[in-house]
Each structure stands twice: as structure tokens, then as C-alpha cells.
């Protein structure tokens, strides 16, 4: 059956409160202190993942540490917690385990975790990149943007996902701006893009300035708090937020009816999948990082696939080919836990057109 497991964790303590009702009545900091001492938890069995070329089943395993604590607690402590979750996956029979949300960015992005487990490990970042770019391109087209005439911005450009997103976009768009904190790393990435594509990407650490004229924005940060608000975007902007937790404030969706914010990496899983766990998606859909773990299991490729911070274009292309083989595909668009249909996108596009005309 080629079993797999996927490690999840609460983005904030309310996620645990929903799972363990009575605990939710405690003050949030008491809940966090309680759960950070808890062992890993088998959350659910995943069944019904199959295609013409393979099948698999697996488990969700929870590492009981919130996103905030993963950033604040000592790195060694957090890694030990994730490794314990991986060992539970081994015990359940998984032959490959995927790292979800912040478990994929702590420390050296999975390398240390893989060294301490007897099964394969992947962060899922390769397929996350593939679906983020595909989704952003399709959303931009529906919003009326010509990709080769658009200005794109990658926020978090020097991270493992951001770097490859920037390199993939460089050859598609008219102009590109890279945003991150460390100027030396930005400059190095810009030089690489210039060498590979001939595109002279601009670099900055000023997010608000960078977003002023962007038609397409890819957001790939590991920030715990939101960094993009309703006043930061021009009418008609398409934002693909790959970050978990989200980097785009929910107020953008509430107040800006002339911009389109989509979640990166939402895919349709082949077969009749039952996750037996509600993580906010309609039936049959998953994050791309989960999907990468599943398709590697379906292939019987029990190998460390996407680890560390040197993600390559070759890996992205290879995993995209596996997705096509097994029938994983972009599952439309979602924005803040809600599906976004083509009619809604047309309405956003029209409001953006009116807003731009008024601004001229």
C-alpha cells in the first residue's frame, strides 16, 4: 500500500482547543504550556488515495507546538519534538513522512530530522512551488493581466521556496522585484537571475514600497504575523499567499473587493481520499506539500526528496511531472478558507478596472 505520514501542528492554540474541547476553556498561555509538554499524537488515518499508476494510505501525526512557539522556543527543543512525531510515523508503518507548515522551516529545513529517522523525509516544497506559480499565472490571466507585461513581486525571496519562485517567474514576467531582509542574499539572488534569464530584478527590504505597482505578488515568508494589509495593494493585484500562517491580513479580503488573494498550493487529490480530519478544505483537497508526500509514496520512492534550503528547478519540474502522472492538479482557487469561482473573479476584475479608472 506504500504508506506515508504527514506531520501537522496547530498554527495557533485555537486549533488545539477545537480538537480538545475542555482545554479550550483555559487561558491561551496555559494551553500552550500544557500542549508543548504533550507527546506527538496520531490524529487520523488517510485512505482512498489512488490513480491508475499507484495507491497509498497514511496518517496525520500532530506535533503539539504552535507556530509561535516553534519560532520562540530553542531550536533543539523544537527539532526533538518534530523528530518524536517522525518516530511515531515510523511506528505506525509509514515509509516516508512529510513536514507540514513550520515543521519544514525549523533549523535546516528537514535535514537534521531526516538524519534522526529511519524513513524518508520531504518538506513538500517542490510541489508547493509548482502549484504556486501555476495558480498565480492562471489567476492573473483571469484578472486580465498579460503575464509577459506584468510586474511581479516575490516577498520572502531569499527563502528556499521564494528563491525558486523568483527564478521561475523571472523568465515569464516583464519586471521583477525581490523582497527580503538581508540585502547580501537578495543581491546574490538577483545576480543569479540576471545570469540565468537576463532579467535585472530589483531588490528591496521595503515591502510596502515594492507592492505599490505590482500586478502579481507571491508571498513566501515564515513570519508569524501578517505583513500585508489592505492599504498595501493597488486595484487588480493578484496575491498568492504560500505562507503558513498567512502573511496577508484577512482585512484585505474584507476591505479590498478589488484585489484577488489566493492560497498557494491547494490541489485535488486523485481517488476517493478521506482524511478523517477537517483542516479547512473541501473533501478531496489538500495542501501541495501533503500531495508531494502522497505522490512519492505512490511511486514507491522512499527517498529524501525536498530537504534543506537549496531547492532546485529540476526538483520542481520532476515533482510536477509526477503530479501529472497520478492526476494531482490545481483545485481551483481558495481565499481565506473559501472557494473563489470565476464569476467572483470577474466581479473583482470589474471593480479593479473601475478603481484604476477613477485613480487616473
Question: Secondary-structure map with pairings?
Answer:
Blueprint: E1 4-8, H1 13-19, H2 28-35, E2 41-51, E3 54-62, H3 67-72, H4 75-92, E4 96-99, H5 111-115, E5 120-122, H6 125-142, E6 151-155, H7 160-170, E7 175-179, H8 183-197, E8 202-204, H9 207-211, E9 216-219, E10 238-241, H10 250-255, E11 260-263, E12 266-268, E13 271-274, E14 285-287, H11 288-298, H12 313-326, E15 329-330, E16 333-335, E17 338-340, H13 342-359
Parallel strand pairs: 1-3, 1-4, 4-5, 6-7, 6-9, 7-8, 9-10, 10-11
Antiparallel strand pairs: 2-3, 2-13, 12-14, 12-15, 16-17
Helix pairs in contact: 1-2, 6-7, 6-11, 6-12, 7-8, 11-12
Distance between the termini: 60 Å
Give me the secondary-structure category: alpha/beta
Number of strands: 17
Count of structural domains: 2
* Average pLDDT for all residues: 89
Largest sheet data: 6 strands, mixed
Percent range of helical residues: 25-40%
Low-pLDDT segments, ≥5 res: none
Separate helix tally: 13
- The global form is globular
Q: List the helices and strands in order.
A: EHHEEHHEHEHEHEHEHEEHEEEEHHEEEH
User: DSSP strand (E) fraction?
Assistant: 15-25%
Rg calculated over all Cα atoms: 20 Å
- In order across it, which strands form the biggest sheet? 5-4-1-3-2-13
